[in-house]
Here is the input.
Amino acid sequence: MNSFCNISGYRFVQLDDLQVLRERMHGALLSHGVLGTILLAEEGINVALVGDQAAIDQSCAWFDDDPRFADMDLKLSLSSFSPFSKLKVKVRPEIITFAQTGIDPENNPGKRLSVSTLKQWLDEGRDFCLLDSRNNYEIESGTFEKAESLNIDNFRDLPAAVDQAIQAGQLDPDKPLVTFCTGGVRCEKTAPWLEAQGFNEVYQLDGGILRYFEECEGEHWRGDCFVFDDRVEITPQLKETGSVICRRCHKAVSHRYQQPPYYLENEYCPACKDGKNGYRPVRGRKTAD
Here is the structure.
């Protein structure tokens, strides 16, 4: 039974008194009984929360009472368990680390493309570049069948990877380009940055993969979608897959491979068992979008 409501979203809006806001927000949301992670920065807020319907409704009402967060676009999915174990509200330099100057998504956002328009373009076989701005381990879980990727392990590596892709002829600045990510927050920075680099026609997928799943399910998609909580992956129908994270190489392990000889918890998974990808330090999941 899917009794847990998961909401996620973000807003680029100027914030100040971040520590005061953090304490107030943590106290209010804790009293409502939700769990999850919220990132605050001067540039805005990034939200991922879970709770029962009443707790989520109360939390959304709390956000709506603050004009800076009112009517925030929060995407909803259901799960059979809570994908978070505690509530964290953190202050960071950026709500999604990109480390590029001159980008202002609040006042100078990139052009948006609706998920229905993207599906139409894909149905028509239109000639454009569909750029996956996510990390390699996310893309391994699934992506659009037409998508181009940049072979990055961290979002902050995207600018250098774009330069390399242009030099290699993989990306053409004169060709229409649609960039996408899980929930949209990364593309809020990717799209205007690409425009500043001379790309002539750039769009960001409005609402990201999660909004596409809500409206179009699996059309033109292959596989599942990596998410930054204990569900690990969800299907195009927004249901958890039963996957877990390998604590060695940080890759998703599907349910059918979660036993020896393929998988041993905290030791190896099919991706790193034979040392093909090397062993990386055990690390926790990050919050992205």
Notes: The domain at 4-91 is CATH 3.30.70.100 (Alpha-Beta Plaits).
